[in-house]
Amino acid sequence: MAPATPPPSATPPPEHTGSALELLVHGVGGATPQEMLGDPRTVRVTGDTTAAVYRRTEDAHGEKHPERYRDEPVAEAYCWSGLTSGNSSRALWLLLLPFMVVNLAHWMRPTAAGRTRAVRLYGVLVRLVALSLTVLLTAAACEVALDLVAWQCAGTSACSERRSWLGFLSAHQGGWWSQPGRRLALAATVPAALVGLLWYLSNRTWSAYESQSPLDATDADACDPDGMEEAHGPGAPDNADDPESARPVPPALSRPGFWYGRRLVARLRAAHTAAGFLTVAAFVMGAAARHDRTVGSSVPPVFGLVIEGALLLCAVVAVWVICRRGRSESVRDTRVDGALITYLPGSALTLLGLAVLHAGWSRPEWVSSGSLSGETAFRLLALGQGLLVVIMALVARSLYRRTPEPRTTLYGLGGPSVAMLACALGGVMTGGVAQRVADWLDGPGTPGTGRGSIIEGPPVLLSWQASVIPVLLLLLLVPVVFLVVRTARRARRMGPDIEAEYAPEPPDRARTRRIARIRATAALTDSAPWIVGVVSAATLLLGAAAVAGSWASGEVPGLATDGAAAPVESLAEAAQSTGSWLIGFGFILFVAGGRRAYRDASARRTIGILWDVGTFWPRAAHPFAPPCYAERAVPDLASRMCAWTATTKGRLIISGHSQGSVLAAAAVWQLPDTARRRVGLLTYGSPIERLYGRWFPAYFGAVPLLGLNRSVHCWRNLFRATDPIGGAVRLTADPDPDVDRGPLKDPLAYGRTTALPLPEPILGHSDYQADPVFAKERAALLEELGPRLPRQTDGGDTLQKSSGRSSG
Length: 808
Description:
Blueprint: E1 20-25, H1 33-37, E2 42-47, E3 52-56, E4 74-79, H2 97-107, H3 116-153, H4 157-160, H5 180-187, H6 189-210, H7 217-223, H8 262-292, H9 301-324, H10 338-360, H11 375-402, H12 414-442, H13 460-501, H14 509-522, H15 528-553, H16 557-560, H17 566-599, H18 601-616, H19 630-648, E5 651-657, H20 659-669, H21 673-676, E6 679-684, H22 692-695, H23 697-700, H24 702-711, E7 714-720, E8 740-744, H25 772-785
Parallel strand pairs: 1-4, 1-5, 5-6, 6-7, 7-8
Antiparallel strand pairs: 2-3, 3-4
Helix pairs in contact: 2-3, 2-12, 3-5, 3-6, 3-8, 3-9, 3-11, 3-12, 5-10, 6-8, 7-19, 8-9, 8-10, 9-10, 11-12, 11-15, 12-13, 12-15, 12-17, 13-14, 13-15, 13-17, 17-18, 19-20
C-alpha cells in the first residue's frame, strides 16, 4: 500500500467561495427525493430516471447565492434505488444467488502484502468454483430436460401416456422423434436456451448498469485546473510476480480501473457461455457415443470420438481463459478481446450443433432404458467443488498469517466459507428442481425408491444431498440456542447500565427490558461470521458424506439402509423424504419471498442489506451474477463531487447512510487529491467497518480506512448501540483520528419529559438526523472545511433551512 497521504492539517486549507453543499446518499430500500430533502417540490439537477441528483426547487441555483446559505449548506440528494429495485420480475435475479455469493468470495480474501502469486492463485480458485456453478446449473437443466423428460418419461409408455404433450416423443408411438437420440437432440434446446438467456442478461445488464466510465485523465484535469494533482502512481503491473520489485500501490478502491471491469467480464462471459454449451453437448454426445461403442450400432464410433475430442479441446481452452487473466485495476482497461469473445462461444455452439446432428442420426436399434449416466458428472462436480474450496482455505489462511488483522472474519477463512455456501446453494436449488420434476412426472410414485415408481428418477447423489439437509438443520439448533441464551443473558446484564445512563429518571423495568433487548439483538450481527463458519464446515463434511454414501451404495438412502437396524432404516427414510420436500418447499418459498421483497418496502429493507452487499461488488468471478450497481453509482458520485468543487471552489460534505455511506467512501477514494481536500465525509448507520471491514479486509480493512481518513479533509461517523447494521469505524493511530461519535443515545428520552411529553421511539438504524448530534457534527465538519461567509448586517438573512433526510 502507498504511504499515507499527510493529514489535511499539514497543508494550508483550500481557497473557497463560501458555497457549501451537502450531497445526501440514501441507504438500503431507497428513498424518494422528496423524503430525502424534506420538501415535496424537487427538481432533477443531473442524471436519468434510474439514478439522479435532485434539489429542492428553491435551491436549484443555490451556489450562485452563497449568502443565502450561511447557516445550512445547499442540499442535494443522490437517488440510486432504481439500480437495485423495480418491478417484481427482478425477483428472478434471486435464482442467480449462488453466482452472486461466489462472486463475493473473490472480494473476501485477506489483506496480502507482497503476496502477488498467492493473490492470483486465490483469484483463479474462486473463478474455477464459479465456473463449476455454471456447469452445475446447466447439468441440472440437462438432467431435467434430457434425462427425466426425453430419456426416461418419453421412453416409458406408462409415463408418456400420462403426459399428452409428450406423445410425439413417445418411443411406443414409433414416430420420427421416437428414437432416443432425436429425443435428446430436441430436448437439448432447453438447456441451450437457458445458457443463451444467461449470456443475454449478462450482456444487457452490463450495458444498463456497469458501462459508466470512471473519471479519466481528462476529467481529472478538469477537477484540477491548476495542476496540483498528486499522482497515485501506476500501481503494480499485471505481470509483477516479484513482490520485492513491485512499486507501492494505492488503495484498491482508488485505482482508476476498479469500477470498470469490462474486459474481464467479457472474457468470463465468453468462457462461461462456452462451458454451458459444452455441458449440453457432453450430455447429448455421451449417450450417443456409449451406444455407438456397443455391438450392432449403425453409426461408426469414430465420428463420436472426433466430436468428443473437439469438446475436450474446447473445454480446455475455456478453463485456460478462466485461469489466464484476472482483473486489471491499475488502469481503466477499455480493450475487449474481440476474437476470444466471438469465437469461443461460437465454437462451443458449433460443437453443440454437431453433437445434436450426430445424436439425431438414425439408429433404429437404439432403445432407451434406465437413466442417462449423469451420476458420475454430479459426483465429480461435487468432489471438484469441495477440493477447490479446501485449497482456497489453505491459500487464504496463508495470506492471513502473513498479514493478520484481528477483526478479519474467521481468521481469513471468510472467502472459502462463503464459496462453500455458494456451492451448497447451487446444489440445493438444482437438486430441488430435479426432484420436484421427477415427482411430478412419476405421479403417485416416488422415483428412486423402487416403490410404485415408473421412472428411474434423478441421480442418487441428489437424494443423498437432500437427506443431509434435515441433519444440517438439527446441527444448527446448537449454535442458535446458544446465541438465544447468550443474548438473553446479555440483555439482563445491560439493565443496570441503561438505568444509570438515563439517571436521574425513575427506573421503568418494561422500558429498560425493551431497550436492553434491542441492544443485545443488534449485537448479534457480530456473531454472524461464526454461524457462517459452522454452516460451511458442516456443509463440507455432510456433502463429502453424501458423495461417499451415493458412491458406495449406488442407491438412495432409504434403500441403502435396507437390512440395517430398524431405527437406522427409519431415520434414513425420514431424512430422505423430509429433505426432498424441504428442498422443494424452500425453493418455492425463496422465490415468493423475493417477489415480496420487491413489492413490499419493509421486507426489502429487511433483506436488502444482504442483497445490496452482494451486488455492490463488480463481477470479478462470475459473469452471470446480478449486475453491480456501484459501477454506475460510484462514478456518478465521484463525477458530481469533482464537477461541483471544480466549478465553485466550495466546500462539500458527502453524507451517507447505511449502504450509502459505503458508496460515499468508494466515491471519495476515486476523487483527485485536490477535490478530496475540499470534501468532508459524514457517515451514519454505516456498515463500513462492522460488515465490510471484517468481511472484505483487503478493501475496507484498518489500513485502507486509516488511509481514507488521512486523505479526506475530515470525517465523522455516527452510530448507535441499537443499530444492527451500523457501527464504529475503529480507527487507531497516533494522533487519534477522532472519527467515531457514539454510541448515540437511543432513545433520546427514557420516559416522558416536559420537552418530549410523548414516548420516544427506539430508532435503531433509521432517522439519524433526528438526533441533535447530527446537526452539531455536520456544522463542525463545515467549520473544519473552512469558515463560512460572514453574516450580513442588512437584514437580508433567510430562514434556516433543513438539509433534509438521507435515511433509506
